[in-house]
Structure formats: C-alpha cells, structure tokens
UniProtKB/TrEMBL annotation:
CC annotations in GO: extracellular region
Acetylation as UniProt keyword: no
UniProt family annotation: Belongs to the glycosyl hydrolase 18 family. Chitinase class V subfamily.
UniProt key word Glycoprotein: yes
Keywords: Glycoprotein, Glycosidase, Hydrolase, Signal
Domain GH18 residue range list: 36-372
PANTHER family, alphabetized: CHITINASE (PTHR11177), OS04G0376400 PROTEIN (PTHR11177:SF180)
Protein origin, superkingdom: Eukaryota
GO molecular function: chitin binding; chitinase activity
Name of protein: GH18 domain-containing protein
Stored InterPro entries: Chitinase_II/V-like_cat, Glyco_hydro18_cat, Glycosyl_Hydrlase_18
Length: 431
C-alpha cells in the first residue's frame, strides 16, 4: 500500500493543482481590450461611513480596496490591525461581485511605517481574497532614483503576473512631480505605457490645507498656472502615455476653510484657518461630499451661497464662516466631457465612501461618462492644451485620504519575492 503523504505535502499538491487549473483557464481567456473604466476607491479605514454591502456595485466597472501597506523592514504585505478591516479584506471581492458579477476588484498596495500592531498580522497571506488586479500606490516617488525603481517594479510585476491580471498605479496629478526635493523627477513614461494597464491620475488635492486664502482644490482649468486637472492629465499624454491608458480622478471630498470675514466669501478670500474637523474625513480642512451637502442644507438659506465658476470649472459653497471647494454634479459632468474629448480610458472616484446616501455623484458620473462618450461632438471642450508657464509651481497633492510616505530608506526595488508571488496568486483564489 502506498505511503500516506504528509499534511504539508498534501497541501502543496492542492495548491499546485489549483494554480495549474487556473493558469490553464487564464490561457484560454485572454482579457479583451477595455472600453471604459468607471472606477472607485473604497477606503477600508472609512468603511463605517458606507458599509460595502450598501454600495451599488452596478455603478462601477472596477472597485479598489485601499489600501494594504508594505512593511518597510520585512518587505511583506501587512494585514490591517483592526479585525473588522481584516474581515473586509477577506470578503471584499465576494461582496462586490455578489452585486455585480462583471465588476473587477483591485488591491491597492502602498508603503507604511508599520507599527507593532500592524506587524502582528503580517504572517497571514492576503493572496486568497479573489482580487483581479493589483495597484501600485506609491505616493509619490521623490527622486530620479525612486522613479527608476518605480519603472523596474512595474516591469517585474508585469513579468510575474499571468495574462488578464490587471496592473495599475495611483500617480501624481502630473507626469512631473513639481515639489520633489530634487530636480527633474519625472515618471518613467515608457515603462508605464508598456507595463501598466492604466494609471489613475490624482487630479485633485492641489492646494495645501494650510493656505490662508480660499482656493479651488481640483479646478479643471487654471490659466495662470499649471495647477489644474487639465494640465496634469495632458502632461501624461504629452509624455507619451496613450490616452487609452490614462484614467482621471474626481474627488468626493471638499477642501474647507474658516473665513476671516463672512462678507468676503469669494475665491481667494482671506481665511483664518482650515475648516472644521469632520466625522467623515476625520481631518480638519476636508469634508466628504455628503457633509458638504449637509452643511448647505442645515444652514439658513440666507447664509448659504453656492457658486459655479465657468472659467475654472469648479464649485464652492459658502455657509456662514465656512467655505468649501468641491466637485458638484455639474463639475463632474464637465470634467468627464473633457476626459472623453481627450480620449481617456475613464475616470475614478476618490473615495466612494464619501458620497451621499443616494450615491449622487457616483450615479451622475456614470451617466455623464456614457453621455459624453456617445456624443458626436463630445461637447465644446476648450483648454485641453494648457501650456502657459506657471506663476508658481503647485504644491504637493494633499488629499484627505491616508498618504504613503516617500522615503529613501525604503526601496520598492528590493521588495521580497514573496510579494511578487503574492500578486501572482491573488487571481487564483476566487471566492
């Protein structure tokens, strides 16, 4: 009688069998070219604002789990320290696909310092959670060396993953990082175009929260500077990345200030400080879209002013001594018309947790994108080539979501091979 295999060998045989079967299936189903991307980032840390089960998955083609960190010393993926977030990670793809079988889920991976609590969960393998792709959320390479390492990283991951597995990156609003500590910090556009399915351009968060005057946080146009979504997006196209690999970001948060004088409430009005801390963003100077709407609705009508700026394609609301720049539905529609005019692959919303109870922005964005793509003239969009020299260079992106530090002490180039294999295996275990 044949000897009974050990438990370890039996498990290995099962894994090998699963991998072999899945690779065979993938070879027979090469992914077709994408027609459009209607994506959303779901912030795991803010799941309390909108449970994943309450999200209308039919409004998106791709949903991102944001984010897992990489331990800087061990170079392994860190599971969340909070048990609820661990469960969310384990069930993310299954929950989303139960509502929309056609939606793709992508795991966004960034860098982090990694405290003791976070490191405690690093022994678990997230490769069993059924994601269809991985996103490199390196925010942001800060030197020419780090940019080169970014290019090496995406090339190695492309070589490691099977056909049909998505590789994307969350990137700066421009292909050139204006405020980097060293000069000439440009993304490796050739590697990006060759190895990534697309880049998610964070065309928002362009004003620092510490500014002492009110300002638009994500204007489509700014004729006086390079501080605009249009300039950032077009810079990627001019760098040689095909429009079919560029996805434009739309913010679902607003940037807020306390006005110095309630009577002086326009763009550029003096401010005394960042706006009030909110439950949604959990930060001063930032409000979720839902909170912006609540602010406007709860103040007396005489104290609320909402304005749409045609030149910038941006909106603000002034409610008493609080001033907020945000993307309303009219701005969203105009931005998506611009994206369609440029031939971009699509858009993403950051983050979908911040939408209101009716998912107003998510619904309007989906409708506007469909309408813009089907329009014979793609509307009368102007300013796509905004090339004037800037009055001043824009500051670093300052989104209210958790940012990943860019430190020379941590090199993505030296990521452990287990992380690369983890990316490969993510596709194998569909729940």
């Amino acid at each position: 009688m044949a000897a009974k295999p050990s438990t370890g060998n039996a498990r290995l045989l099962v894994v090998i069998s699963v991998v072999a079967v899945t690779l065979s299936s993938l070879s027979l189903a090469v992914a077709a070219s994408l027609e459009a991307v209607r994506a959303g980032y779901y912030l795991a840390a803010d799941a309390r604002l909108r449970p994943l089960a309450e999200l209308d998955a039919s409004l998106y083609t791709h949903l991102y789990y944001y984010a897992l960190a990489v331990h800087p010393a061990r170079r392994t993926l860190l599971l969340p320290a909070e048990p609820g977030q661990v469960r969310l990670l384990a069930t993310f793809s299954r929950t989303v696909k139960a509502k929309n079988r056609g939606v793709k889920t992508v795991l966004s991976v960034g860098t982090a310092g990694g405290g003791a609590a976070a490191a405690a969960g690093s022994g678990s393998d997230p490769a069993e959670n059924g994601f269809d792709g991985i996103d490199v959320a390196w925010r942001f390479p800060a030197s020419a060396v780090e940019m080169a390492e970014f290019g090496f990283l995406v090339a190695e991951w492309r070589a490691a993953v099977p056909p049909g597995f998505l590789l994307t990156a969350t990137v700066y609003f421009s292909n050139h990082v204006f405020d980097a500590p060293f000069a000439g910090v440009d993304y490796p556009s050739d590697s990006v175009a060759r190895n990534l399915d697309w880049v998610n351009v964070m065309a928002f968060g362009l004003r620092p929260a510490s500014a002492n005057v009110t300002a638009f946080d994500a204007p489509l146009y700014d004729r006086a500077s390079h501080y605009s979504a249009s300039y950032g997006v077009v810079s990627w196209l001019d760098a040689g990345v095909p429009a079919s690999k560029v996805v434009m970001g739309l913010p679902l948060y607003g940037r807020s200030w306390f006005l110095r004088n309630k009577a002086n409430n326009g763009v550029g009005a003096p401010a005394v400080s960042s706006g009030p801390k909110q439950r949604g963003s959990n930060a001063t100077g930032a409000m979720s879209y839902a909170e912006v709407q609540w602010l406007a609705a709860t103040r007396t009508s005489s104290a609320v002013i909402t304005a749409y700026d045609n030149a910038s394609v941006a909106t603000y609301v002034s409610a008493g001594d609080v001033w907020v720049a945000f993307d309303g539905v009219a701005v969203v529609a105009e931005k998506l018309a611009f994206a369609a005019h440029c031939g971009l692959l699509g858009y993403f919303l950051w983050p979908v947790n911040y939408d209101d109870a009716n998912l107003t922005v998510s619904r309007r964005a989906s409708q506007a994108w469909t309408q813009s793509k089907s329009s014979p003239d793609l509307r009368n969009i102007t300013g796509a080539r905004q090339t004037q020299a800037p009055v001043q260079l824009p500051p670093a992106l300052q989104s209210p979501a958790p940012t990943a530090p860019t430190s020379a002490s941590f090199s993505w180039r030296t990521l452990d091979v287990r992380l690369q294999l983890g990316a490969l295996l993510l596709v194998f275990y569909q729940l």
